[in-house]
């Protein structure tokens, strides 16, 4: 049996930009991507803590060290600059493997920077 489990999470980052007239996606600072073991084009779920919106999109790599969290295209309508979001990715794996898997959890500071 294969099940879907939490792979990675970037917990409570602030939306820094919104680009409605864009093809679509979420741009994420490359430092955060590396820390969360996420990659460009990976499907993610975004949960907005401010308004309860939940949506799926894919990742675009943002400039390293900028703290960028930019909602592009239609998902720009689901959050405002300054909103706090959680970005989650999932993986499919064998049930027995999933029992042992430890997801990667990242808890950035208030400026979307990694805490050292």
From TrEMBL:
**Residues reported in the UniProt entry to bind substrate:** 57
Known EC number(s)?
Answer: 4.1.1.11
Q: Which Gene3D superfamilies match?
A: 2.40.40.20
The record's section on SUPFAM superfamilies has: ADC-like
Q: Say what the protein does.
A: Catalyzes the pyruvoyl-dependent decarboxylation of aspartate to produce beta-alanine.
Q: Kindly provide the PTM information from the record.
A: Is synthesized initially as an inactive proenzyme, which is activated by self-cleavage at a specific serine bond to produce a beta-subunit with a hydroxyl group at its C-terminus and an alpha-subunit with a pyruvoyl group at its N-terminus.
Query: What is the protein name stated in its UniProt record?
Result: Aspartate 1-decarboxylase
What is its quaternary makeup? Heterooctamer of four alpha and four beta subunits.
- Details of cofactor binding: Binds 1 pyruvoyl group covalently per subunit.
Q: Per UniProt, what is one GO molecular function of this protein?
A: aspartate 1-decarboxylase activity
Whose protein is this, by species?
Pelobium manganitolerans
Tell me which GO cellular component terms the UniProt record holds.
cytosol
> What reaction is this protein's catalytic activity?
L-aspartate + H(+) = beta-alanine + CO2
Q: Which family does it belong to?
A: Belongs to the PanD family.
Q: Where is the active site?
A: 25, 58
């Amino acid at each position: 049996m294969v099940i879907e489990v939490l792979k990675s999470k970037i917990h409570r980052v602030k939306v820094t930009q919104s680009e409605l007239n864009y093809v679509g996606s979420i741009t994420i600072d490359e430092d955060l991507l590396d820390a969360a073991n996420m990659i460009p084009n990976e499907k993610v779920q975004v949960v907005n803590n401010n308004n309860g919106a939940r949506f799926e999109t894919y990742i675009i790599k943002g400039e390293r060290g900028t703290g960028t969290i930019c909602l592009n295209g239609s998902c720009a309508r689901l959050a405002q600059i300054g909103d706090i979001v959680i970005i989650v990715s999932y993986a499919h794996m064998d049930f027995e493997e999933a029992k042992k898997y430890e997801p990667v959890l990242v808890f950035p500071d208030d400026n979307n920077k990694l805490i050292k």
